[in-house]
Amino acid sequence: MIDLRSDTVTLPTEEMRKAMFEAELGDDVYGEDPTVNRLQEMAAEMMGKDAALFVPSGTMGNQVAVLTHTEPGSEVILEADSHIYYYESAAASVFAGVQPRPLAGKRGVLSAELVEWAIRQDDIHLPPTSLICLENTHNRAGGTIVPLEDMQKVYAVACKHNLPIHLDGARIFNASVASGVPVKDFTACTTSVQFCFSKGLSAPVGSIIAGPRDFIEQARRWRKRLGGGMRQAGIIAAAGIVALETMIDRLADDHANARFLADALALMKELDFNPEDVDTNIVIVKPVNMSVRQLGNELEKRGIFTVVMEPDRVRLTTNKDVDRSDIEKTITVFREILG
Ligand SMILES: *Cc1c(COP(=O)(O)O)cnc(C)c1O
Q1: pTM for the full predicted model
Q2: Which residues does ligand 1 sit against, CB inside 6 Å?
Q3: How far is Cα 268 from Cα 302, in angstroms, rounded to an integer?
Q4: Which residue's CA is the closest to the ligand 1 atom numbered 10?
Q5: Cα 199 to the chain's mean position, in Å?
Q6: Rounded to the nearest 5°, which phi and psi values hold at 31?
Q7: What is the pLDDT of residues 188-230, one digit of tens each?
Q8: Cα-to-centroid distance, 119 and ligand 1 (Å)
Q9: Which residues, in sequence order, are CB contacts of 126 under 8 Å at separation 6+?
Q10: Which domains does the chain have, with CATH numbers?
Q11: How far is the CA of 254 from the centre of ligand 1 (A)?
């Protein structure tokens, strides 16, 4: 089986398992788990923020950030295909009581002009804008990198209107490794950031949110309210430390495999996609002569697992647990099916 469904399917490394076994532990709800504390300090430093908080998932991290930044009845500006809007089961509406204001981006990039246009005036008929969310890399756009200059322009608009920015940086290390832009340059344009350990970094569980100290203190209370206060959480945080120490640079291998795959698939007339849209580890293709469901099934019959994105696209995500020969096999199978 060649699993290209996601980079979340990656299994922890031996070194992670050993670190988990040996982790020094305490009760993190009392703030006494030394391994969690060490991970949070490392993460805050790497993100260029005052403080950080370990949370069970990326979704909880994003939602804790939305809850902390906003008031019910306010409006959150975000990209129409963003994870927070598209894939979190309306959590921001359900928990934070906010109204999303989805705006269409290009390759996941929101223009600063559009963001400024969407910021509400002070008027009792209108919900006050409370937050702007960005996503980098952008998942549904195909793992695309939001260029630093675009983030800086949105940041200038946010500063002018005194609004916070939350970055869904589930794959911010992919953006940094592929572009050569330091993570801290991206996060300097945002008030808070969430990133995932459980994607390409291959740790089993967990995410970080990082931001100003008072933001993280309030976020800790929201995490507790949502049931995300974990006790001897150092056992999973230990894998996160190994992820930060050993798994960032190797994301370049995933990007090279995605590039190799994209260049080969781009030669197949039966697929409609632009290989230039592939920036990192995600390749999204559109079959011309068959349904996506049919393509997904034919691949699966031959041991290749992908995500069918209805109505017309199939997503392949390279990751630590597939190597170049798996990618070559995938290309051969595509040729066989599309014939
Ligand atoms: C995966 C992902 C998340 C959510 O992470 P989970 O740990 O699965 O809840 C958030 N944002 C983006 C862009 C993601 O790809």
Answers
A1: 0.98
A2: 57-59, 62, 83, 135, 139, 168, 170, 196, 198, 207
A3: 19
A4: 58
A5: 8
A6: 75, 20
A7: 999 999 999 999 999 999 999 999 999 999 999 999 999 999 9
A8: 26
A9: 120
A10: 7-246 (3.40.640.10), 250-338 (3.90.1150.10)
A11: 18
